[in-house]
Amino acid sequence: MAQGEQGEIALSGANVFRGYGPPGATPERSSFHATWFRTGDLGFVDEEGYLHVTGRLGERINRGGEKIAPRAIEAALREHPQVEEALCFPIPDPSLGEEIGALIKTPGGGVVDARELRRFAATRLAPTRVPRFFWFREQLPQPASGKLNRRALAEELGLLPDSREAHDVSPGAGTRDALREIWQDQLGLERATRDDDRFFDLGGTSLGLV
User: Fold this and answer.
1) 94-126 tens-digit pLDDT
2) Tell me: the pLDDT tens digits for 164-209?
3) 81 near 111, Cβ under 8 Å?
4) Which of 12, 51, 54, 3 is nearest to 33 (CA)?
5) Bridge-partner residues for 36, per DSSP?
6) Residue 189 burial (CB < 10 Å; 0-12/13-18/19+)?
7) How far apart are CA 84 and CA 105, in angstroms?
8) What 3 state SS string does 77-129 have?
9) Of the four, 6, 102, 125, 209, which is 20 to 30 A from 17 by CA?
């Protein structure tokens, strides 16, 4: 990979094992490329030759076909003065396959306005990498094994968005009220939108807009 470009980390050398199981067992081919052991870790080499580990292949969020490493998003969110820790994970989405959710730990367990966090993240991340959903917690999950399964996190914590089935709008409802219901349904919001809300600030996507 080019310098600074993220890729999978592979190891080779006399001190690296050659396969799994008892002597004579067939190595798992998916974990090896010739003499290289594929670790499943993601990383990049900086201009000084240091290797930086950025995450795991299996942790990546598949948002509309784009594979996104959650740790890069977490690092950007931690730059906010009111964010102590951040944990990103995939949220099932009917249009994009997966969306980005973020658990936020703030000093003292306070709550930051999600729109403010989204705007802050947009100054440091590409638009497709800005989380759509935010939840605030006094503590973030810390499994006893030390290994966090991000792919199961949304279901385990009960953070799946509400059903987005279309709601009927009464014929007498005004255009603004009808649009408010559509936005709330499409964006999976718990509250009704305000007149000064912006679709993309609330986590809307171009596909969702269509």
Assistant:
1) 778 888 999 898 887 777 888 888 889 999 998
2) 333 333 344 467 778 888 888 888 877 777 766 778 777 888 888 8
3) no
4) 12
5) 33
6) middle
7) 5
8) HCCCCCCCEEEEEEEEECCCEEEEEEEEECHHHCCCCHHHHHHHHHCCCCHHH
9) 6
CA distances from 193 to 127, 136, 205 (A): 22, 20, 16
- Give the C-alpha separation, 32 to 153, whole Å: 29
Report the alpha-carbon distance of residue 36 to residue 19 in Å, rounded.
Answer: 11
Per-residue DSSP letter, 139: S
**Helix or strand (DSSP H, E) at 39:** strand 36-45
Q: Are strands 51-56 and 36-45 parallel, antiparallel or unpaired?
A: antiparallel
Tokens of 72: 């890069």
